[in-house]
Structure formats: structure tokens, C-alpha cells
Amino acid sequence: MTVAVVGAGAVGCYYGFLLARAGHAVTLIGRPALVEAVEKDGLVLESAAGTASVPVRATDTGAGVSGADLVLVCVKSGDTEAAGAMIAPHLDPAATVLSLQNGVDNAERLAAVLGRPVVPVAVYVATAMAGPGHVRHNGRGDLILGASETSGRVAAAFAAAGIPTTVSAKAVDALWAKLIINCAYNALSALTQLPYGRLVEGEGVAAVIADVVQECARVAEAEGVSVSPGILDDVMALSAAMAGQRSSTAQDLARGRPSEIDHLNGTIVRRGAAHGIPTPANRLLHALVKLAERRD
Asked: Going by C-beta distance under 8 Å and a sequence separation of 6 or more, which residues neighbour residue 272?
């Protein structure tokens, strides 16, 4: 396949690397620093298996999606509409567009801009950028792909590239489950700059996480989403599975960049208010991260 990755950060670069290594023609769309680094040294992946690089194309313009069979949109939630507008004039009519983003409504928002279906994808991977064009993999990498006419073919290509992929008509439910996990960890990791394993060892942290998860589950159920009765156990288990991972929100704050907190805990606060459900734990975490973003 010919693949374009829109928003080549840690998630986009990781999957772009695996697809390029499997022989697909990959174009990364990202910042000029990324383009320069990739043109010089290729796309670099650092993992437990070692460090390797693959040659890929890179550009900082939306024209990079021209001719692509598959488009992976990996931008921050707040950039969804802008990214859609950037690539819309260049999309092939037959291209499959996937939203590999945090939050529960990005595929819907992107589809509204593009005027075409977008497949929601729940992403379970721990990655971070070690530098421009250099991604570090810390764990997992599996995907839950929404159902569409092309999802089976895409999932097969992903699996052949070493990306475990499941196709599910309930991908949106999976996105809600992931949102709950993100609400539990992202803000706390950001405010403390601690990885998940050390974070949960803090006094009172497990109780705070339980409060956050309970609020999220009530809001999800009010939205008609099926939440596993074992969701809290699933959330807590992540601290062992990704013990060394700092959240994407923590990485954003450390770099002085805006975070996605409005689309994480902020979503729970807004939708909770719409349903008359109190969300004090999520409201506090949202407010604290917003304050931290304002620090000089």
C-alpha cells in the first residue's frame, strides 16, 4: 500500500516505521524538523530489540496524502479540523482514512470536515519521541479498528507488518474504555511527571484513580456506552504493563506544548454536565492541567 501519516508524532512515527519496514511506501506529514531529520537519517525506531532506521518520504504539507491508499490521522484532538482541511483537497476518492487519536469523537469530527467516512481506531501503544524522526517504543502496539468495507484488508496488512489488529463494530466502545484509562493516568502523570508504575505507589493515588474511573463510567453509561464491570481492574493493571511510560499529556507539558486535556477529562466534565452527573475529580484534574499549561 501507499500510506500517508498525518501528524507524525510518537504514534504516527511508530506505525509508520512498522509499515515502511514491511515494504509499504510511507510518507510522513509533520513539522519541518521531522522532515529534515528523516531526509538525513531515515525514520529511527528505538525499542527493546535495538535501534533501526527505514527510509521514508516526509513533508510538511497536506499534499503528502496525494495518491495514498491509506491515510493515518494521528494529530492531537484539538488539531483535527485543521488537519482535515489541510488534506481534503489532496485525498484520493478511494483512500481509506483512519483516525488513530485519543478521545471519542475525532473520527466523527474529521468525517464532517472531509465529507466522507473515517474509521475510528483505538490505539494501545506506549511511545515517545527521543528527537525529530526518532521514536522510542516502550510497550504494546495493538489496535482495534472500526468496521468498514476495507477494514479487513487493512487489518491483514497491519498484522503482516507486526501490528496486532482486531476489527470490531464496537470500536467506539473501545475508545471510551481507552478514554477512561487516559482520564485516570494522563493528568496525574503530567502534573507529577511520573511514569505510571511510580505514580500508583503514591499515597492516595489509587483512591483518586478509582474516583475518576467511577465518574467516567457513569458518564459513559449515560451516553449509551457499554462499560466493563472490571474497568477499574483494567485501569490499575496498566500501571504494571506500562510501568515506565509517562503519559502523552506529561510529554506535552514537559515540552511546553498544549495538551489534549480538553478532549480527555474535559470531555467527561462537559458530557457529565449535560447529563446532570457530577464529575469533581475529573474537573479538578482538568483545571490543574489547564493551569500548568499557562506556566511560563
From this structure: 215, 218, 219, 278, 279, 282
